[in-house]
Specification:
Structural class: mainly beta
Largest sheet: 4 strands, antiparallel
Strand order of the largest sheet: 3-4-5-6
Distance between the termini: 42 Å
Number of strands: 38
Helix content: under 10%
Radius of gyration: 27 Å
Oligomer: single chain
Length: 498
Amino acid sequence: LIMLALPPQLTLAEESRFFPETSHTVSGKFLQYWEQNGGLPVFGYPLTEAQNEVDPETGQTFLTQWFERNRFELHPENAGTKYEVLLGLLGKDLRREALTVDPDFQRTSMLNEGGKPVDNLQYFPLTGHNLRGIFLAYWQTQGGLERFGLPISEEHVEVDPITGHTFTVQWFERARFEYHPENQPPYDVLLGLLGVELKNPSPGLHYQWKIDRRTSDSLQRPTQLALDSQGHLIVGDSQDISIQKYSQDGHLLSKWGSQGTENGQFQGIGAVALDSSDNIYVADAFASRIQKFNSNGQFLKAWDTGSAPAQGIAVDKTGNLYAYGETGGNGNYHPAYVRKYSPVGKLLKEWHDPQAADKTFFNISAIAVDSHNQIFIVGPTLEKFNTQGELLASWNINDASQNQVIYTGSLVVDSHDYLYLVDTRLGFKADNPLVPDRFIEGRIRKYDGDGRLIRVFSWDNQGKADGQLNQVSSLVVDPQDAIYVADPLNQRIQKFRT
């Protein structure tokens, strides 16, 4: 009975080793491969027992065991050869989408300097990538093609989602190389914890891929994002003064708009929203009007918003549009409004803050509508209204500490009616609380429709590396809970999984 309970390729007679660090056992061919090909520094500790699993690359079932840095597969069809145990294609599993979108994963030509070949470099025409320097030396001496597969990216800088540290990395079919200059050779190159990323992911944001100026010549400063019903990404670019439409795999499908005052032109891109028919509404940042386009970018309608530009817009399920902005005034104080328009631009209602003494909103930073046509407005508090402007609930979201100020904005509702709110913590000078002097932390806070905080995704490693964020101006969440973030100062859009 005990023999029948074991996987058919392992028997009690085979050598086994128990790892108390993770409470798992490695046996037989897997233990032999682990010990003979680098052991703990190369593969890490076992994360699972050996069990039959379907390989996502081939659809075939193999005896499989997961380790911190890779996955072992037993291939009985290769019995008696060095290919009886193979490593899983974890690099491709984690970066499958990036292969068609991310510019660092796109095919390129052989590197050269002034038309001359680069020393200590090998080019792989099958995948179109270069491997050089310390990564090439590690690849050649530690197993090469058999262990790591072909390179599927160029070397670049990324944030490791497990440790939160930033490394120069290069991706391969079966591994990710990381350069650790703080370590002495041979440990200055380590393999990424891909097994952990797939089997025991951390609760934060996991970088997937990016669109930037190398992917799309049109993308200059993306500030506004929206998703249509087909999963297409609608981008408002405040520097290019255009609306751009991208496919699910990040390829530019169409683009329209230019700077001007005619229909289909903009003086600036202030806000973007979509209705249930994928019509696209654009609020001009420097003109008091909202324009409506169909899903192909054809101009349909424009209307004047009166005394000041709309700074944020959202559309409910019946096609009514909600806009907020400032009505103008003397000095630094500008009373703010929320207005409701019909799908053709007829003003239906205007309301102000029922909680304020003077009944005016102040410092609104975002607006969103859920599937029940409830309107959420972010200011000093998060407030929920019905379509008639009646206050339903209010929650305090400001938890700034001494010498810190939280800037909130970019509120979005996902397909499950969860709210995602971006905030940024800035440190201010002790002698001048009006002058920020340091970045402390950025966060994306997830709430349910009753204002309960569900989860917080944070980043304190502001920068330009993949997975880092500099300034978040807008985000959207797709039905699979992937988050697209506009990072305008880095001239890119990044996709994260949660």
